[in-house]
Protein: Aspartate-semialdehyde dehydrogenase
Organism: Candidatus Raskinella chloraquaticus
Amino acid sequence: MSFKVAVVGATGNVGREMLNILAERKFPVSEVVALASRRSMGVDVSYGDKILKCKTLEHFDFAGTDICLMSAGSSVSKEWSPKIAAQGAVVIDNSSCWRYDQEVPLVVPEVNAAHLDGWRKKGIVANPNCSTAQLVVVLKPLHERFRIRRVVVATYQSVSGAGKEGMDELFTQTKAIFVNDPVDHKKFTKQIAFNVIPHIDVFMEDGYTKEEWKMMVETKKIIDPKIKLTATCARVPVFIGHSEAVNIEFEEPVTADEARAVLRAAPGVLVVDKHEDGGYVSPLECAGEDASFVSRIREDMTVENGLSLWCVSDNLRKGAALNAIQIAETMVSRGLLQKKKAA
């Protein structure tokens, strides 16, 4: 059985990665359609060894479409996802628009695939925030074995999380510094080249940023509402790959060796944890890879049943595009999708 798949936002970083991963993983497609805004009509995008010309979202008829991979931002998703779902396609949305709707499953397949059973309520499945996706893949197996009480996480997030404009700004600023040109910033609140900015998304009344709030709320929805989580999210001058320093307090006793064994057996996780120079994974090595890599696993002697670890992942893949394709694959394997007949 093969499916007609539409990718909305096909010219963006995540949309292009979705097309790459569909081809890489040989997802069973009968047709792939690239959709974008009117200004991107006719732009060429790659799908495997094929070139697709972008069509406009507003003029596309979704009759006969089985799956819509939505990566065009919250405002577009808010307007279009219900319309597309009403025509019978499942919408897998990468924006934050539907994540906190109790009738919309928020899914990381390695963690809570069973939540997909409720997708028909609105015809939409939400992808979590990029920093949340890589984290919950690591937390879930540890929670099942040792029961997590509290998580403290500091993120070091790459500029690709802010889109093409973020990547362009890092490149332009770095070049300007080397040739002694003026350094301007537009996408970020401060210079990002050779700097760290402790601010992602808008500030909220309690002093947290929305990016930090997202991690708190999404982890609870995906794994367990009883988990307490606090986060500090920073933007760093890295092109691809989010890093996280994670401190976890458990209800049950845990050793570093026990945690390594649990994580080595967990789907979607790769442990690289040698106590030697270079015996850990950095964002440079994780770019283009599918896993959440875990290193620096050690016991926290300042609290009872505490553990600290380092986690890195490609934010454009597991943090966005790959997770969306994995959701589609899981829906197919669980028999939740039936191919529609073209109108």
